[in-house]
Design brief:
single chain; 5 helices
């Protein structure tokens, strides 16, 4: 199993984004994170680790951010499908137990 780098960006960019966190809104930082090459999950982790934002709030900030608006509909559809699949699996497990 390979280990994953904590953030797929260089240390200089991390330092710059940390500085911007102190002077900017999280949604503006999310745009910078996406431009720097972070995916949604890494952006959430970054906000949690470097801004002290709870994971729940970081998820909401990233998911609802203008920077990721192009993915909102497809991500929502995925969440709905995953919830429906989980209900089916849970239902099957309880009826076979």
């Amino acid at each position: 199993m390979t280990s994953r780098k904590p953030y797929p960006i260089d240390e200089k960019t991390i330092v710059e984004l940390r500085a911007k966190l102190a002077a900017s809104s999280p949604s503006k930082i999310v745009a910078g994170l996406r431009l720097a090459g972070l995916d949604k999950i890494d952006s959430m982790k970054f906000l949690r680790d470097f801004a002290g934002i709870s994971l729940h709030d970081a998820k909401n900030i990233v998911h609802l951010s203008p920077a990721w608006a192009d993915r909102y509909d497809s991500d929502e559809a995925f969440h709905v499908a995953a919830e429906e699949a989980a209900k089916i699996v849970f239902s099957e497990e309880t009826t076979h137990a």
